Amino acid sequence: MAEEAAHDATSYIQHHLTFHAEPVRESGGFWILHYDTIITSLILGVLAFGFLWLVTRKATTGVPSKTQAFVELAIDFVNGQVRSLFHHDYRVVAPIALTVFVWVLFMNMMDLLPVDIMAWIYQDIFHQHAWRGVSTADVNTTFALSLSVFGLMIFYSIKSKGLGGWIKELLGSPFGIRPLWASPLLIAFNLLFNLIEYISKPLSHSLRLYGNMYAGEIIFLLLGLLASSGVWGAFAGGIVHVGWSIFDGFIAILQAYIFMMLTVVYISMAHEHH
Question: Is residue 57 flagged as an active site residue?
Fold first, then answer.
């Protein structure tokens, strides 16, 4: 009985953690597309920014509606955070920060939807046996976002310092390249340190968000198993589920905020001259 229960629990978790994926080519391996991640991310992006577009399109200069006031507060909040960290022209960086915050927040909030009810909807209504709704619990999503920010960081670094200035900084900091007789060794050390910094930024940026959202997804699945273990299990699981949902909601907001702030910090660092 214990082995059968363990098998059922494993099958339950594996079912909810299975992607709707197909290989791009016959060899499979690395070249696999997670259609559920891509489609869910696009739908949430259209809904989130379509909502913002509709609100701003109908904005008035008089007494704002509750919806307009909420959007204005969100925009003012993001603008304030960007201004406190980015001391250059923020007219481009602030929309980037707002886009990152809103999109990541919507993807994170999918974790609050009941997993079993959503699995029934995916399977019985949309006829998708394997479908994961939390896009940020897929490391491909978080890496794609972090690599996009990494590309922006390189772009703004070259734009601010010029290609020659960026290469000079890459080879000449933090140790400099003097004295001349030690230049090759110092250049090698500088390049090594800078490469470590460049590689660590997208890694930490992506894995922090992925780890938190994946852990939240696992905990909801474990609570679902607890709720199916009997009357007392359902009672205890329901109470813990409510508490964890509130806590996970704060985590979802916090992780979106951290991802946005790191985006602004990395772009701001790209403008600094060493």
Answer: no
Catalytic residue among 183, 208, 228, 245: 208
Burial 122-131 (b: 16+ CB within 10 A, else e): beeeeeeebb
Domain-located, residue 38 = yes
Q: Give the pair of three-digit tokens for residue 266.
A: 């990395």
Residue type, 268: S
For this structure, is 140 an active site residue?
Answer: no
- Per annotation, catalytic residue among 212, 228, 245, 268: 212
Regarding pTM above 0.85, the answer is: yes
The residue annotated as part of the active site, out of 11, 65, 200, 204, is 204
Active site residue 204: yes
6 belongs to a structural domain: no
| Beta partners for residue 21, in sequence order | 34
In tens, the pLDDT along 154-170 reads 999 999 899 998 998 88
Q: HSE on the CB side for 176, CA within 13 Å? A: 4
Number of domains in the chain: 1
CA nearest to 93, candidates 262, 274, 247, 243: 262
Whether residue 33 is contained in a domain is answered as: yes
Q: 178: domain range? A: 21-132+139-270
User: Is 83 a domain residue?
Assistant: yes
Low-confidence ranges of the chain (pLDDT < 50): 1-2, 4, 7
